[in-house]
Write a structure and sequence with these properties.
Structural class: mainly beta
Number of domains: 2
CATH topology of the largest domain: Methylamine Dehydrogenase, Chain H
CATH superfamily of the largest domain: YVTN repeat-like/Quinoprotein amine dehydrogenase
Number of strands: 36
Strand content: over 45%
Shape: globular
């Protein structure tokens, strides 16, 4: 038997607030299908999602062999698409290859290509895993690269120690830059934003922000009294430098500084002691201009919902807490925390402050027509019969309707909505959602 539910709805005032719920982080099981691919001694170096929702992750096994994983958004599964040219499934461990070169880091360029640089060699590699082709660049001076950034336009900057290397064409050509500014940093965070080169330097207890549009003429601005670990810019004006303030032994307080004028001036938005053996805030990323994540040790996390003005500290129960560093990536509408030897956590920011349980537990409904004008039909044959809370939110995470109904068949909604996008959720025995568009 089919039951028709008709809801006449007007836009209401906000009934809920946007907020993080760190229990909603999903642990991505890249290695779950085979015990030989368990995450021990595996580290994910980079992760990127593409427009269709698929994602790619590149990492190393035993700090040596590169692996590439692909997330298929159509079936919600991860599969390994490149295994370092050897087969751990059928090869005894004692016969695995000897160490040749140790990748320090890798960046995903596009859906087939990764960019690799190494711990002990002055080499950049582009590797196309779809065709198994390498393009190797040996650079001079002969220092191994410590930090590197590369954007989709081919602009890059690398810190090999004592100087910097810049490129505008994916390292086909490059320039060696020697700066006149004094520095006592062991290694410098570097970043490319559009076609602007950025460096966070350290001298005499002070972090400095360096900026150049041509790689030759640099401006230098003081940031704060801390050691820098990373740089993140969300647009031309708003950016962050993260790091730590030294205290007893090797421990550092967690620190984040923010700029709203492109780096000319900075102010402190976080300074917190986070137990011994921390190295300060190591990484930060944002989705849009409100939601951000910052990491230091594995299992420790800071989040913001106001563009990085205020940060909330909490611990993640999905992974073991260790003193090893964890990093964060943002791609599309998703955050990822890359945890040393523990895999990846994911958080979909699309429904931040909306969902009642982790987003990956929601099943997608079928709705037609969509976009709609006055009414929309929801195919609910696949919905488990029972009592559900029906909720609709706008794109600002404001709850505009809430009701409780018993559903056992077709769900038809007659809606008086303003033009725009909305999220329809059914929450009860199971969880369902659909993004609907009012024309």
């Amino acid at each position: 038997m089919k039951t028709t539910i008709i809801i006449i709805m007007l836009i209401a005032s906000s009934l809920t607030a946007q907020e993080w719920d760190n229990q909603k982080w999903e642990k991505l099981e890249l290695y779950a299908n085979n015990e030989k691919l368990e995450s021990v001694n595996r580290t994910i170096l980079d992760l990127k999602c593409v427009e269709n929702g698929d994602c790619y992750a590149v990492g190393t096994f035993k700090s040596l062999f590169l692996e590439v994983f692909k997330y298929d958004d159509s079936n919600k599964n991860w599969n390994r698409v490149y295994d370092g040219n050897w087969d751990p499934f059928s090869t005894p461990e004692e016969q695995w290859p000897d160490i040749i070169a140790q990748p320090r880091d890798a960046k995903i360029k596009d859906e087939t290509t990764i960019f690799i640089y190494y711990q002990n060699d002055a080499i950049f590699n582009f590797y196309d895993w779809s065709e198994n082709k390498y393009d190797t660049i040996q650079y001079s001076p002969n220092y191994s690269t410590r930090n590197l950034d590369l954007n989709s336009d081919g602009y890059g900057i690398a810190d090999p120690g004592n100087n910097f290397i810049t490129t505008t064409d994916f390292w086909k050509t490059y320039k060696v830059i020697e700066l006149d500014f004094p520095s006592t940093a062991f290694e410098n965070p570097v970043k490319i934003f559009e076609k602007r080169y950025m460096i966070a330097d350290y001298y005499n207890g002070i972090c400095f922000f360096l900026s150049s549009f041509n790689g030759e003429d640099w401006e230098r601005f003081p940031v704060g009294d801390f050691y820098p670990n990373n740089i993140f810019f969300m647009d031309k004006e708003i950016g962050f430098v993260t790091g730590g303030i030294n205290n007893a032994g090797d421990s550092r307080d967690d620190v984040i500084y923010k700029t709203t004028d492109g780096g000319s001036s900075w102010y402190e938005v976080l300074n917190q002691y986070n137990q011994p053996a921390s190295w300060g805030i190591y990484d930060v990323s944002f989705v849009g201009n409100k939601y951000g994540v910052a990491t230091s040790k594995v299992g420790k996390i800071y989040t913001t919902i106001d563009g990085g003005e205020n940060w909330e500290y909490s611990e993640l129960n999905q992974v073991d807490k260790t003193i090893f560093l964890s990093t964060t990536e943002s791609s599309g509408n998703k955050f990822f925390v890359l945890n040393a030897n523990q895999g990846i956590l994911s958080y979909d920011a699309t429904l931040l402050g909306i969902t009642s349980v982790p987003f990956f537990k929601y099943k997608e409904l079928t709705a037609y027509p969509n976009p709609f004008v006055n009414s929309i039909d929801i195919e609910s044959d696949a919905v488990t019969t029972g009592e559900y809370k029906i909720k609709i939110y706008d794109v600002n995470s404001e709850l505009v309707y809430e009701d409780v109904r018993f559903i056992s068949g077709e769900l038809k909604l007659n809606l008086e909505l303003s033009t725009g996008a909305y999220f329809l959720l059914l929450e009860g025995e199971d969880y369902y959602y659909k993004k609907i568009i009012r024309e």
